[in-house]
Amino acid sequence: MRRTSKPLTFLIAFGDILSVNAAFFGTFWLKFGGDIPGENLQPFLNLIPWISLAALGSLWLFDLYGWPLKRFREILNGIIWGSVVTSLATTVLAFVSYGFAFPRTVLFGSVITQIIVLSTWRFSLVFFKRRLQEKKNIIIVGLNGDAEEIAAKFLAYHGRDYVVQAVYEAKDIYLVIQKISETAAVCFGSKVPNDIKETAIIRCIEEGKEVFLLPELYEILLQNAKLSQIGDLPLFQIEGLPLSGAEAPGKRFLDLVLALTGSVVLVLLTPIIGLAIFLSSPGPIFYVQNRVGQNGKIFGLIKFRTMVDHAEKKTGPVLAGKKDPRITVVGRILRATRLDELPQLVNVIKGEMSFVGPRPERPFFVEQFAEEIPEYKHRLKLKPGITGLAQVLGNYNTTPRDKLRYDLMYIRNYSLLLDLQIVFQTLRVVLMPEKARGVSGTSEEILRQISALKHHNAGAVPARR
């Protein structure tokens, strides 16, 4: 899922390579007061290609070559953890190839210098990009309230790059067609009828306008369609959702490697976590709950208990709230750090779950969601996962429909590299509890802005058409 233009990606990557290696050289220079001994300098010069690859891999894993419209805090968090991983990788490389040619002060100090140099480079790039690139006007077209939801997202996240000019209902299509020439971009909601969407998108393409489209669920299933041909008839060939015969064994092997490695952490932490749970509230340490797995098979998902014992005795199945009083003090810590999920490594080893995949839901909620969203059943064609795309890109308030969009996108774009990136993105989410893309709700100010925009925004902020 490429989200940044290739020329910009290459520029960013080249600058990152220069920044990381300059940071290491600067750390050597500071360590030796400007006179770096040859026996230390030469090993560093020999390792530059490998340090560069480690840096690119680390920064990629923390999504610094993805979505270009990041906030400063998101960029800084990615730089911090990317620098830590790069220095750890360099430590291993230096020890294996050159023994102790890299002093420990250089290896540890390089984390700080990397953060400083990379931050200077990245923030300078963002600053000049925003100075040189004018803001773009965008109009939102939707139906039955989805235009307002999309506008709220743009106002909350993309205000520095796009200015929402107006919000229209799809029934005003003739007005929308007229306004396309007065804007730089148009975003269509998923509920807009296909005939209206087709007419408007064709006009956008004719006039060279940028188009955003919130996909309907079936449209996600069209991703990666192959161009085929029968005689002189061009066709799109769409494959089924389950993984191919070649992909499934590779995913299972990765699951076992990650689960067995993680089991070491589970064994070490279980006595400490178990004692904390025991002291915080009466009841068992572990909690087994029925969840729906691949092809609808029910299995017992294992977690550390985070709620009071028999939490649903009076209420029945209820989704946990953000400040749910049933969650214990220790349980809040375990949930915030995702440590409550560690026992699910046993489910992975048993083959009931994968490390990465759609999160398994309880039978009660699966029936409820499947009744409201017929396409929900497609996510059951893959093993559920401890983590997934919806968990690293969504937030606490992401709706079941939007989570399903992420799940279907994951299945359609599956690769082992994507699994590895999601694993490291999960680590990023654990280490950065504020959740880079998450918000807790729509502010009153944004609601007032949307109300004004629905009246065609007479006071819109001027921006480039």
Topology:
Layout: H1 6-31, H2 38-61, H3 72-98, H4 104-132, E1 136-142, H5 146-157, E2 162-169, H6 173-180, E3 185-188, H7 194-206, E4 210-213, H8 217-220, E5 226-230, E6 233-237, H9 247-280, E7 286-292, E8 298-304, H10 329-337, H11 344-350, E9 354-356, H12 363-372, E10 385-387, H13 389-393, H14 400-412, H15 416-431, H16 444-453
Parallel strand pairs: 1-2, 1-3, 3-4, 9-10
Antiparallel strand pairs: 5-6, 7-8
Helix pairs in contact: 1-2, 1-4, 2-3, 3-4, 6-7, 9-11
In words, what does this structure look like?
This protein is α/β, with parallel strands linked by helices. It has three domains: 6-132, no CATH class; 136-214 and 444-453, Rossmann fold; 247-431, no CATH class. It has helices at residues 6-31, 38-61, 72-98, 104-132, 146-157, 173-180, 194-206, 217-220, 247-280, 329-337, 344-350, 363-372, 389-393, 400-412, 416-431, 444-453, and strands spanning 136-142, 162-169, 185-188, 210-213, 226-230, 233-237, 286-292, 298-304, 354-356, 385-387. Helix 2 crosses helix 3 (72-98). The protein is globular.
